[in-house]
């Protein structure tokens, strides 16, 4: 009889936890993610600097199935400009956490392009040849409240497309999907 009563108590407790009555705040995890913008410096890789935050935001939304909300890019950019910070200032965990708090984010994502190459099959800007594009981006995601690194790794992607812009976007999307999975479930994706 005692075993049946104990089992019923365990089941009731499990149902209470599942309903959000106990430990809901610990189970929820982060809700808002901010992605650093490329601000105040001449981008080495041109359009890549503009594409990375947008593509990474799309990938995080998809990987989290809408659970994570992304802080609007204009808010992050505006706060960086207000502080007169460039992307280089976000190498500091203290500065990255400060920016995350300022934009009310639970997770702050910073990034740096470590490799980019796009070469066409034919010479000339308007050639009909295919472009092979390879990209690698170092991504760091940290909990703003604790400054604990959730992800600190390099992710790579490649593409082979007719149009350079399409190839660049696809290569970045490939690496962003891997990075997003790692951000959504830290420890699930090994560094490359």
Explain how this protein is built.
- The chain has 192 residues and is of the alpha/beta class.
- It has two domains: 1-27, no CATH class; 31-184, Rossmann fold.
- Helix content is 42%, strand content 24%.
- The protein contains six helices and five strands, in the order H-H-E-H-E-H-H-E-E-E-H.
- The protein has helices spanning 2-18, 24-28, 47-63, 73-83, 93-102, 164-184, and strands at 32-35, 69-70, 107-120, 131-143, 149-161.
- The protein has a five-stranded mixed beta sheet with strand order 2-1-3-4-5, with helices on both faces.
- Strand 4 (131-143) and strand 5 (149-161) form a beta hairpin.
- Helix 3 (47-63) packs across helix 6.
- The longest helix is centred in the last third of the chain and has 21 residues, at 164-184.
- It is globular and about 50 Å long.
- The N and C termini lie far apart (55 Å).
List keywords for this structure.
2 domains, 5-stranded mixed beta sheet, 42% helix, 24% strand
Which residues sit in consecutive blocks of at least 5 with pLDDT less than 50? 1-27
Q: Strand percentage, roughly?
A: 15-25%
For the termini, the CA-CA separation is 55 Å
Per CATH, what is the topology of the largest domain? Rossmann fold
CATH homologous superfamily descriptor of the largest domain: ABC-type transport auxiliary lipoprotein component
Helices and strands, in order, run as: HHEHEHHEEEH
The overall strand count is: 5
Structural class comes to alpha/beta
């Amino acid at each position: 009889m005692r075993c049946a009563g104990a089992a019923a108590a365990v089941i009731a407790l499990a149902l209470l936890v599942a309903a959000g009555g106990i430990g809901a705040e610990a189970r929820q995890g982060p809700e808002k993610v901010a992605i650093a913008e490329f601000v105040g410096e001449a981008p080495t890789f041109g359009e890549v600097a503009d594409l990375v935050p947008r593509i990474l935001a799309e990938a995080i939304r998809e990987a989290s199935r809408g659970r994570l909300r992304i802080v609007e890019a204009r808010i992050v950019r505006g706060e960086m400009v207000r502080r007169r910070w460039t992307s280089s200032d976000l190498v500091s965990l203290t500065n990255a956490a400060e920016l995350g708090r300022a934009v009310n984010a639970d997770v702050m994502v910073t990034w740096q392009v470590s490799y980019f190459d796009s070469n066409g099959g034919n010479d000339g800007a308007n050639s009909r040849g295919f472009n092979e594009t390879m990209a690698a981006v170092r991504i760091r995601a940290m909990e703003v409240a604790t400054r604990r690194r959730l992800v600190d790794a390099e992710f790579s992607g490649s593409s082979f497309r007719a149009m350079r812009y399409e190839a660049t976007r696809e290569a970045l999307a490939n690496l962003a999907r891997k990075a997003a999975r790692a951000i959504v479930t830290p420890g699930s994706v090994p560094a490359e």
